[in-house]
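pinned: reference chain
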Amino acid sequence: MPIRKAVIPAAGWGTRMLPATKSQPKEMLPVGRKPTIQYVIEELEAIGIKQVLIITGQKKRAIEDHFDRDMELIRYLKEKENYDLINTLKHEESDCQLFYTRQSEQKGTAHAISLAENFVDNEPFIVCLGDSIIMSSQPGSLLKRLIETHEKRNSAVTIAFRPVTLENVSKYGIASPHPDFDYGAEFKLKDLIEKPKINEAPSNLAISARYVFSPEIFDAIRETPLNKDEYQITDSIRILMNKHDVWGVRLAEDEVRIDVGGFKGYFEAFIKFAFEDEEFGEEIKEYTRKLLEIDSEK
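pinned: its structure tokens
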């Protein structure tokens, strides 16, 4: 069955970004000229996904408001003949249908994904974390490869991975590739280790915020035990791995995961997008050079 649907978990409190996220969803924090979650939606649109379920939570109404068509604002801009600004609101005209449901209790990513079972309706589906952007010269290229591998390998779950430094493996879910089925760009998983110690990490390949799931994942989630008061999707995948094949896909050289779930990643992302801005990019670069010169002179 062709993959037609996607799910975006976006219900977390965003505690690593306080106080910025006290009343504003971290998924709505701007990176360059757009909020983070808009990049995620555009990535899905690039591969033809037409139905997206966003899992929201308390104080997340701004996400719905952002994607709703604001006729009053458009009417005002037309009166002022600000047509350039109207063009910046084209995301409101998308033919991608957005649906919303709320995760009322913070019980982890697996619990959030479980809320999509009726929406998915026994079909395979994509999951994109709402606080991560995938930059690529070809929008949607990573998702396309995930889907191709998922279908070709008859996989129950297909996961995106990227290399990280050994010092950072303890921050992520890390792949243990099957040595007999490692084909470079894609590989079969022998295991997944959540936040291993450096000397216990089976590789430096970290889960990178994009998945394709078959509907069997919902049965695995129902079997998943609580882990530190949450249901971890890594635990659910490991349960499924005992019965079905799970595959990984490496990010290509021109694909970069940008994690805006913490301040360091957010600052780096904003600087990167500011430098690439068509209108102000060169000015921002020059301004940054001057700041660095001043700092080096102190």
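why pinned: DSSP finds eleven helices and 13 strands in the chain. The chain has one domain: 5-261.
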